[in-house]
């Protein structure tokens, strides 16, 4: 036990200083667009999604948003104005006791990794997640209620939610769900 504890403490020391590869403008654009979408996403129980890109003046902006299904969303926004697409974003629709929607799904992470973009996910509980498009690590940028909250949301219903998940940890969580 002592040995395992030592390993865990060492791992924590090693991972803590790793900076999140995320430009401030990208985060600001994601926060703004997701904040505007949460209410609709809850009341219609639909995901909304899109992309964020960098313009030639260096600023970041979001595409038009696309309304998806209850657990999927394929962006139809126009990305042609961007110099570079840097991130995807989506909401997780309304609260559903049958869905593990307080964390990003493995397909969320796999999608961002395969496209080489970061990802931002807002949940029914009001959490905001950042998916690093290079490592696939998902980090909670802010916790319960920081992005609004579905009035039907029941805190704790999906079990404990960590601050950070690797893709492997999300796979393990999904297979035990
Ligand atoms: Zn998702």
Explain the overall architecture.
A hairpin with a 5-residue loop joins strand 5 and strand 6 (128-131). With 177 residues, the chain is an alpha+beta fold. The chain has helices at residues 2-15, 24-44, 106-115, 167-176, and strands at residues 48-54, 60-62, 66-67, 84-91, 118-122, 128-131, 138-142, 164-165. The chain has one domain (22-176). It contains 4 helices and 8 strands. The longest helix has 21 residues, at 24-44. The two termini are 27 Å apart. Bound molecules: zinc ion (ZN). Zinc ion binds at residues 90, 92, 104-105, 108, 121.
Note the main attributes of this structure.
4 helices; alpha+beta; disordered N terminus; 8-stranded mixed sheet; binds zinc ion; globular; 31% helix; 177 residues
Query: What's the tally of helices?
Result: 4
Mean pLDDT: 91
Let me know the number of strands.
Answer: 8
Radius of gyration from the alpha-carbon trace, in angstroms: 16 Å
What class, by secondary structure content? alpha+beta
Distance between the termini: 27 Å
Largest β sheet strand count, sense and barrel closure: 8 strands, mixed
| Percent of sequence in beta strands | 15-25%
Number of domains: 1
The ligands bound in this entry are:
zinc ion
Order of helices and strands: HHEEEEHEEEEH
Q: List low-pLDDT spans.
A: 1-18
Helicity, as a percent range: 25-40%
Assembly context of the chains:
single chain
- The rough form would be described as globular
């Amino acid at each position: 036990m002592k040995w395992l504890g030592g390993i865990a403490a060492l791992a924590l020391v090693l991972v803590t200083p790793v900076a999140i590869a995320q430009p401030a403008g990208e985060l600001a654009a994601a926060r703004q667009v997701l904040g505007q979408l949460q209410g609709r996403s809850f009341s219609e129980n639909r995901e909304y999604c899109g992309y964020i890109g960098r313009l030639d003046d260096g600023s970041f902006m979001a595409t038009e948003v696309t309304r998806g299904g209850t657990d999927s969303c394929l962006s139809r926004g126009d990305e042609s104005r961007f110099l570079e697409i840097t991130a995807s974003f989506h909401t997780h629709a309304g609260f559903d006791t049958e869905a593990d929607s307080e964390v990003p799904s493995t397909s969320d992470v796999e999608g961002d990794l395969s496209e080489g973009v970061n990802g931002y996910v807002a949940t029914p509980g009001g959490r905001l997640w950042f998916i690093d498009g290079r490592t696939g690590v998902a980090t909670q940028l802010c916790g319960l209620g920081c992005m609004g909250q579905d009035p039907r949301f029941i805190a704790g219903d999906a079990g404990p939610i960590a601050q950070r998940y690797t893709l492997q940890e999300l796979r393990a969580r999904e297979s035990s769900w």
